[in-house]
């Protein structure tokens, strides 16, 4: 039977391989790490999302809220709700908001209801007031559908004023007036009163 001696060259080759890897692997890791830093660059906000529908830089300079919602109860018990598509803080007053896509809802305890929609407006929580402007449409029970250019009101009391011309339909026909006011009454005559003034013209249209 033949006896073979162990090949002494194999351990030597293994030792050399291990020695080479100890040098090569750290060098490869160092090269990869260097490439990471060399290829990295500062992110440009204007190129962050090429298909974004918003201006990232403008939004950073001009922060705003989407779907803003303000709600409360007035002194005379009416529920007041204001919603806005966007609300932006006024630079000169942190509790004042410039808003777009504004809608107003006032609901009285006895079912009285007023709704209004406007393109733009402002809500001043410091002074407790709001303003609605531009292409304004409103409806008031019982059966008024009106248009005007501006409404102003209070957040804690039912008092809504339209200082410019108001026109639209009334329960008895069509109406045009130089101004309008909706206010809450207290005491024995508690309720809500809709007052027209400034050259009121009512075109009476009987049902029959």
Beta fraction: over 45%
Mean pLDDT: 77
Q: Order of SSEs, N→C?
A: HHEEEEEEEEEEEE
Return residue spans where pLDDT drops below 50 for at least 5 consecutive residues.
48-54
Structural class: alpha+beta
Question: What is the tally of beta strands?
Answer: 12
What distance separates the N and C termini? 131 Å
Radius of gyration: 36 Å
The description of the largest β-sheet is: 12 strands, antiparallel
**Helix residue percentage:** 10-25%
What does this entry show, briefly?
The protein starts with 8 loop residues before the first helix and ends with a strand.
Write up this protein.
The protein is of the alpha+beta class. The chain has two helices and twelve strands; from the N terminus they run ααββββββββββββ. It has helices at 9-39, 56-61; strands at residues 64-73, 79-90, 93-107, 113-124, 129-140, 144-154, 159-162, 166-170, 173-177, 179-185, 191-197, 201-204. Strands 1, 2, 3, 4, 5, 6, 7, 8, 9, 10, 11 and 12 form a twelve-stranded antiparallel β-sheet that branches. It starts with 8 loop residues before the first helix and ends with a strand.
What attributes does this structure have?
208 residues; 18% helix; 12-stranded antiparallel sheet; 50% strand; alpha+beta; 2 helices
Summarize the helices and strands and which ones pair or pack.
Blueprint: H1 9-39, H2 56-61, E1 64-73, E2 79-90, E3 93-107, E4 113-124, E5 129-140, E6 144-154, E7 159-162, E8 166-170, E9 173-177, E10 179-185, E11 191-197, E12 201-204
Antiparallel strand pairs: 1-2, 2-3, 3-4, 4-5, 5-6, 6-7, 6-8, 7-10, 8-9, 9-12, 10-11
């Amino acid at each position: 039977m033949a006896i073979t001696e162990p090949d002494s060259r194999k351990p030597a080759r293994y030792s050399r391989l291990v020695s080479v890897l100890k040098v090569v692997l750290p060098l490869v890791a160092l090269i990869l790490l260097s490439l990471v830093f060399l290829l990295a660059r500062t992110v440009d906000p204007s190129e962050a999302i090429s298909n974004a529908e918003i201006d990232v830089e403008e939004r950073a300079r001009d922060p705003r809220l989407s779907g803003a919602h303000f709600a409360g109860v007035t002194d005379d018990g009416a529920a007041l709700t204001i919603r806005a598509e966007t609300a932006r803080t006024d630079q000169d007053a942190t509790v004042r908001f410039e808003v777009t896509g504004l809608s107003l809802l006032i609901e009285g305890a006895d079912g009285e209801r007023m709704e209004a929609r406007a393109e733009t407006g402002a809500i001043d929580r410091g002074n407790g007031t709001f303003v609605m402007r531009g292409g304004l449409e409103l409806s008031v029970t019982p059966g008024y559908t009106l248009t005007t250019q501006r409404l102003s009101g209070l957040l804690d009391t039912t008092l809504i004023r339209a200082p410019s011309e108001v026109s639209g339909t009334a329960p008895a026909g069509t109406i045009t007036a130089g101004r309008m006011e909706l206010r809450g009454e207290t005491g024995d005559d508690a309720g809500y009163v809709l007052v027209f003034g400034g050259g009121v013209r009512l075109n009476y249209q009987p049902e029959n």
